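Extended Data, panel c. Modelled sequence:
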Amino acid sequence: MRNLLSLLAVFFLGPLYLAAQITITAADFRFYKRDSIEEVHCDTTGVLAPSSGANMTWDFSGLTTSSSFTTTTSPHVSSYNSASNFPSSNIVNVRLGVEYYYKISPSSLKALGNFDKTKGGLNGAYQVYSNPQKILQFPSTYGDTFSDSLIINSLSGLPIGQKQHLSCTIIGYGKLVLPKGVYNDVLLKETITVTDFYPNSNVKGEVVAYQFYAKNYNWPLFQYRIWRTHENGIKLTSGKYVIQHIQHTNISIDEFFDDDLLVEAYPIPTRDNLNIKGIESPTAFTLLNSIGAIVLQGELTEEAAVIDLFELPQGSYFLKLNLKSRIQTLKIIRQ
C-alpha cells in the first residue's frame, strides 16, 4: 500500500526531490560593512557550455585550482577616494587595485564603471558607462530575459571607442557542485555581450558568459566565459575558454553597519548549545561554515532562542540573523 501511494504521489505531483522554481530579489543580496570574497581561478579548458533547464545539476567538482586571492565589497562607497565620480553608486568592489562601482535597487543590480589606480599615471584611469550596465533585474527567475546597451567613456566624457550590447537570459535552475562545496537553489544566467571595438567599424567581439547565482551571495558563486571574435561578420575563433572561476565566502570581516549589537550570542566558544539574547519576535537564522556554505537554518523565538551545535565539526562559523531592522552577523566558535 505504501509503495502504491508513493507511485501515485510521483504520478500526480512529480518526483518529490525536485526543487521548486527559484526567484532571487534585491532583498537576497546582503551587503555588509566589508565582505571578504575569495576569488579562485581554475583551468576551465575543455569545459562545455552548461546545460539549460529546470532542476539541473551542474557538476564542476573536478576543476583544478590554479590561483586564488581575496577581494572586498562594501556599501560604504563614500570612504573611497574616487567615489565622487560615481555619485549614484551604493556598492563598491575592490579587486587587484581596481575599484568597481555598482548600484543596487529593488529592480536591478547595475555596473556604473571603474577606477584603476594602477593605470593612467598618478591620477589613475577611469571608465564611466554612459548607461549603467544591467547585471541582474529583480525579481530574477527561470525564463527571464533582458537586454542593455552602453558606451564606455573616459572620465572626461570622451569615447574610449567601445560600444556594448548585452542580451541576458536565465536559462536554468538547480544544484551547483564546486570543488569547495555544493549549493542548492541556484539560478544560471547566460550573457551574450557584443562589443564594437572601434567607432564606425565592423570589428566586433562576442563573449558568452555563464554565471551562477544563489540567495544571500552577492556575486556569482561561479562563472566562466567563452570568447568568440568576429570581424566583418566572419567568426574567427570559437570556444576559447578563459580561466575565470570565482567562489565567494561572502563572510563579513567587519560584520556590522555600525557597532551596536542588537542581539548577543553566548557562550563563545561553545561545545553544544548556543544561546541567543535579544530576540523579540520570530527570527530566521542561517549558519555558515568558514567557506560560506550553509550548514544549518531555522527560526528562533523569544521562548526558544537556542541553537544546538553539538553535531557540527569543531571550527569557526558565522550566524546570520534576519532581524526586523537589518541583518546581523555573529562569529561563532564550536569547540
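The chain is about 5% helix and 55% strand. This feature is highlighted in the accompanying rendering.
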